[in-house]
Design goal:
Length: 279
């Protein structure tokens, strides 16, 4: 993987952890993630006139991605409802790369070198160490684990769909803008059905932070889908999940959630794996 692509994906990982923290800080996580999606849509509408329309052959992937992203956001909001940030985030993000790794080999015939496979599994090992740190706190709550794992399945699914779709679109910006512009409608409809008219009041009340988080979500994922046109999808997916390190720091220092030596060890494992990836 090119050095610039590696650095860009790491920046995207940072942005992803930040906007997820915004979701967790809200009183109602479903409303929070809907507001952030609305912020992402507003951001995309500004970019829309300056982007090239994606090729027709990518449209089915955009439609599928919208549906999967909506399912992902609903599952994620539920995962944060039943678990703390430094439990739900690592389990959800840490489980997804293995699925992407397997599916990209099965469906896309992407074959990685021995060094790249070693780096991917190193990153996954570090992520698993993060994930198991707080697993004991939620192991008795099956809903927390269920929603975190469901989120992971959605992450893996939209990663593969978008990895294929963006390569067919011939327009990274067009693909991203179309997807983020239209995904708000089914999500907002679902949230309105679940929460009623108060969803609009809550979003208006927190418009600025939600818009900021939405901008980070758009920028971060634009980098990811661009990176998937430059490098194997499995590599991008694994490297993106280094956001778990940022999430752990946010959980420890902002949410005051427990941390310890295990997370330091996990961070070292992930960092060494990134270095191996770049050798």
């Amino acid at each position: 993987m090119d050095l610039f692509v590696t650095f860009a994906v790491l920046c995207a990982a940072f942005a992803h952890a930040i906007w997820n923290a915004f979701v967790k800080t809200g009183d109602d996580h479903l409303i929070s993630i809907t507001g952030i999606a609305a912020g992402a849509t507003l951001t995309s509408l500004v970019i829309f006139p300056f982007s090239t329309a994606p090729d027709v052959q990518s449209w089915p992937y955009i439609f599928a991605s919208i549906l999967i992203h909506v399912a992902y956001m609903i599952a994620l909001s539920q995962a944060y409802r039943y678990s703390d940030f430094s439990s739900a985030y690592p389990i959800a993000r840490g489980s997804a790369p293995m699925l992407v790794f397997a599916w990209s080999f099965i469906f896309l015939q992407e074959v990685l070198s021995a060094r790249e496979i070693l780096a991917v599994f190193g990153i996954l090992l570090g992520i698993m160490v993060f994930s198991t740190r707080r697993l004991g706190a939620v192991v008795n709550d099956r809903k927390a684990i269920w929603y975190a794992l469901l989120t992971a399945v959605c992450i893996a699914a939209y990663t593969i769909v978008d990895g294929i779709g963006v390569r067919l679109s011939n327009s990274v910006s067009g693909y991203m803008v179309w997807m983020t512009t239209f995904e708000i409608f089914p999500l907002l409809l679902y949230t309105w059905f679940r929460r009623g008219p108060k969803v609009f009041t809550a979003i208006a009340k927190n418009a600025r932070p939600m818009l900021f988080a939405g901008m980070m979500a758009v920028g971060g994922y634009w980098i990811i889908i661009w990176a998937m046109t430059q490098a194997p999808i499995a590599l991008v997916a694994a490297l993106r999940e280094t956001s778990i390190i940022i999430a752990a720091l946010i959980g420890a220092y902002y949410f005051k959630e427990p941390s310890g030596k295990r997370r330091i060890i996990a961070a070292i494992i992930v960092c060494v794996s990134v270095v191996i990836l770049r050798l």
